[in-house]
Amino acid sequence: xxxxxxxxxxxxxxxxxxxxxxxxxxxxxxxxxxxxxxxxxxxxxxxxxxxxxxxxxxxxxxxxxxxxxxxxxxxxxxxxxxxxxxxxxxxxxxxxxxxxxxxxxxxxxxxxxxxxxxxxxxxxxxxxxxxxxxxxxxxxxxxxxxxxxxxxxxxxxxxxxxxxxxxxxxxxxxxxxxxxxxxxxxxxxxxxxxxxxxxxxxxxxxxxxxxxxxxxxxxxxxxxxxxxxxxxxxxxxxxxxxxxxxxxxxxxxxxxxxxxxxxxxxxxxxxxxxxxxxxxxxxxxxxxxxxxxxxxxxxxxxxxxxxxxxxxxxxxxxxxxxxxxxxxxxxxxxxxxxxxxxxxxxxxxxxxxxxxxxxxxxxxxxxxxxxxxxxxxxxxxxxxxxxxxxxxxxxxxxxxxxxxxxxxxxxxxxxxxxxxxxxxxxxxxxxxxxxxxxxxxxxxxxxxxxxxxxxxxxxxxx
Length: 462
What we know:
Layout lengths: L1 H9 L4 E3 L9 H22 L1 H6 L1 H30 L8 H23 L4 H16 L11 H30 L13 E3 L2 H21 L10 H7 L1 H12 L19 H17 L5 H6 L2 H14 L9 H5 L4 H14 L2 H7 L8 H10 L1 H9 L24 H8 L8 H17 L10 H5 L2 H6 L3
Antiparallel strand pairs: 1-2
Helix pairs in contact: 2-4, 2-8, 4-5, 4-8, 5-6, 5-7, 6-20, 9-10, 9-15, 10-11, 10-15, 11-15
């Protein structure tokens, strides 16, 4: 046991400046403590599955711990970076230490957002759609599709964590090599003392206890996800209108353009032709769309126009059996798909067309109905209401408050910008680069010295 304790001690600094035992120099360790909690709870949740973390008592508790640990992780990383900034701890030979830490910080923000995408509730659906707009505007939509749960899962539990652990290991080696930064002012007094590991671990224990307590008192919110079957059951005319818009290629997805064009699939084929062919085959009925395909272009357009006008009436789907028998093949096909959607089979059929990117197709269809925006507005989480910064109509947990800079941009310089996602991504990208390379920026890297806050921090350990 003594050998184990000795080995653990050797992984930490054994001697530090007198101010090194203060809370200001514990935030790096506390960030690692949060990361350990996130890793343990994350592994348990992966093995137990989404049904457990969404519905079971202990599953909700673990999900809540995971959420609060993520909140603490981001907050502590920011405070840690601020402490290093104020004490000019990025000066040579510690420039690379700062740069690795800064990259880890931005990876942590991305990790948190992919975690929200995977939660499995309404928030996941809406946030995934908003994030997709951001990545599409940043020209990354062809590589990062937040609507693809398999990709988000892989990024969240494998790719980003592995990169973070590698960078953190390099960060740790540099800290171990160079130690805690000494005062840049030669007149500052300090002495080298033994590192107080007991105090360090005590602070870590208090942090874990606080995270667990917050999870127990303020559990992670849950609003069940919206399904296409819900839309069909609650508002059949809206379901029919959306299907008609997909068929005529006038829906939001069909006309989507945001710097790049990530949705290259044919909405008519994806949302009407393929699922309707499956419906006709399973019910043993003739494919009504064959008559539409055989008609001349002018007649096809007339059928589409008639179908659009027909389903504008709130009573258009009151008798779906009669709708299915309608002489207009487009009206008949749409009526059949409304029936299919009510049974819950339509959403599965749509997603099975391209299962490698589930649930991209169904989420885009739900977005086309307008139901998700309506519900998000009621919950207070649309872009106009500061979007992802807030939780679903709640203030505790506080939501992704770290996205406040993006919210500020959306409400100020980008308020009337038609390419807001693209420009916002470019602004934040430039800001990220400036932060990463801050130690090399002349004049700017002297700002902390002008603030004279470092002297106050150093004196805490005297």
